[in-house]
Specification:
By secondary structure, the chain is mainly alpha-helical. Strand 4 and strand 5 form a beta hairpin. Helix 2 crosses helix 8 and helix 9 packs across helix 11.
């Protein structure tokens, strides 16, 4: 019983202790909460004060910036006002100066009008006095003023004629005594100072080979290689019993050179068949064209001629493969250019212009097309087209008297052209006529529709005409051959007979893949 009582007392004591602890803890918590609230209030007060300070500083800064901006604007306004006032003063000064100048000009104009009126009055007075003097002079002399002028002019004219005739006779006598001697001296000295070469024109080229086996490869199976080569170059290839040589025959030196170089490359390469032949010929033709341009440039540099148009340089290079009456055209033009320069120097003229005119005087012989014009006129038109000077164009066009000579260069070019062509061994007229006949043959056949290429071979005894297979059929080839033969017979003069061969080739190409 006592034990239970003690236990109850202990439980009550524990409950009381727990209650007391809870009360104590509550009081402690309330005191802490109050302390935290007080601390928070203090911090809030501090933060409030800081924010107020920052706001006041920001307000002060904004106010300061606004005052500075206002001051700057005010200073700019004051500066603009100052400039406006200064400009206003300048305008007032200028206006006053203009008004003063206007007043001065008005006064000057009034003075000039007064002087002009006085001058007109004096002029009228002088005219009246002049008329009175003329009337008195006519009355005294018994002649009018027009009659007196005529008599004076007649007397002066007679005196001038007499003096001029005497002066002209003296000059003519002196010129006759010295002209022949001086002209011979200039011509002989010009010729002596220019080195010349005698050029001989050939119509064949001999191509050397190592053995007769190569001849057979060049001919090909059933002659297909040689036919392809002749068709591609327009040159007749003569393979005969001549040992270690093949003859290339044709009137056009450019074609012969292309054929020679193509044969050389084919023999070295060893692959000789129609397709390869066409490829090599096309490549060689391009190389020869480049060589023509290089020759033109080298010639212009050697002669000291600058500023030539590229097309004129190309025409000069083509002269290397042309001839004039058997004389190489490029050598003839170089020789004429040097002669012109020497003769112009002797006569006190510009040697550079003379050399330029001498080089270009025969460019009408090597055009890309063949118009119906004399070569001198054609050369003049080409020079005008490429902006050469008028005196040079006139010298080119007048060197065979097709047009009137208007400059001193023209007779010099004419004389030097004759000197170059007239020396012994320089020319053979038969070659020029021969080449012209072959050109006429080719151009006649080219005038027909469907004709692609024409080649005059066998010294003009055969004309080969290549036509397009898609433009002319087999029946029309026979008709075309007969028409060309009839026209040649009616329009041209030639020795013997001319064989016309019309070639129509059809090719079929396929590829195995």
């Amino acid at each position: 019983m006592n034990f239970v009582y003690y236990i109850l007392i202990a439980i009550v004591a524990l409950a009381l202790g727990a209650a007391i602890n809870m009360v104590i803890q509550r009081r402690l918590a309330r005191s802490k909460a109050a302390a935290i609230v007080e601390e928070a209030k203090a911090e809030a007060e501090v933060i409030k004060k800081n924010k107020l300070l920052e706001a006041r500083e920001e307000e002060l800064r904004i106010k300061t910036e606004a005052e500075n901006a206002a001051n700057q604007r005010m200073s700019r306004v004051q500066s603009a006002e100052g400039r406006i006032k200064q400009r206003e003063l300048q305008l007032n000064q200028q206006q006053s100066e203009n008004q003063r100048a206007k007043n001065e000009n008005e006064a000057t104009r009034n003075r000039l009008e007064e002087q002009l009126a006085k001058t007109e009055a004096k002029q009228n007075e002088l005219e009246s006095l002049k008329r009175q003097a003329l009337e008195e002079l006519e009355r005294v002399s018994g002649l009018s003023s027009d009659e007196a002028k005529e008599k004076l002019i007649e007397s002066l004219k007679d005196e001038a004629k007499t003096a001029a005739a005497s002066y002209i006779n003296d000059i003519m006598d002196e010129a006759k005594m010295t002209a022949n001697k001086e002209a011979k001296r200039i011509v002989v000295q010009s010729i002596q100072r220019v080195a010349t070469e005698t050029a001989i024109e050939n119509s064949v080229t001999v191509f050397p080979i190592d053995s007769d086996e190569i001849k057979g490869r060049i001919i090909g199976r059933e002659g297909r290689n040689i036919r392809a080569l002749e068709a591609a170059t327009g040159i007749e290839i003569i393979v005969d019993d001549t040992p270690e040589a093949i003859v290339l025959s044709g009137f056009d030196p450019v074609r012969r050179e292309i054929a020679r170089l193509a044969l050389h490359q084919l023999v070295i390469d060893g692959r000789i068949h129609p397709a390869r032949i066409e490829e090599v010929v096309a490549k060689v033709r391009k190389q020869v064209e480049e060589e023509i341009i290089e020759t033109g440039k080298r010639t212009a540099i050697d002669l000291g001629i600058h500023g030539l148009h590229p097309d004129l340089i190309r025409l000069v290079g083509k002269m290397k493969y042309r001839s004039s009456y058997g004389q190489n055209l490029l050598q003839h033009s170089r020789e004429t250019a040097n002669l012109c320069a020497v003769m112009a120097s002797e006569l006190g003229l510009n040697p550079k212009k003379a050399r330029r005119a001498g080089l270009l005087h025969d460019i009408g012989k090597v055009p890309d097309e063949e118009p119906e014009l004399p070569h001198a006129l054609l050369g003049m038109k080409l020079a005008e087209k490429y902006k050469e000077k008028p005196e040079i164009c006139n010298a080119i066009g007048a060197h065979h008297d097709e047009i009137e000579q208007t400059s001193l260069l023209a007779p010099i070019v004419q004389v030097c052209d004759a000197i170059s062509g007239a020396r012994p061994g320089a020319r053979r007229e038969i070659v020029e006529a021969y080449i012209k006949r072959l050109n006429d043959l080719e151009q006649l056949a080219l005038s027909y529709p469907g004709v692609l290429k024409t080649y005059a071979i066998q010294a003009g005894r055969e004309l080969r005409v290549i036509v397009g297979a898609d433009k002319i059929d087999d029946a029309e080839t026979e008709k075309l051959s007969a028409e060309i033969a009839k026209r040649i017979q009616d329009e041209m003069t030639y020795p013997g007979q001319v064989k016309i061969t019309v070639i129509r080739e059809t090719r079929s190409v396929s590829f195995a893949k």
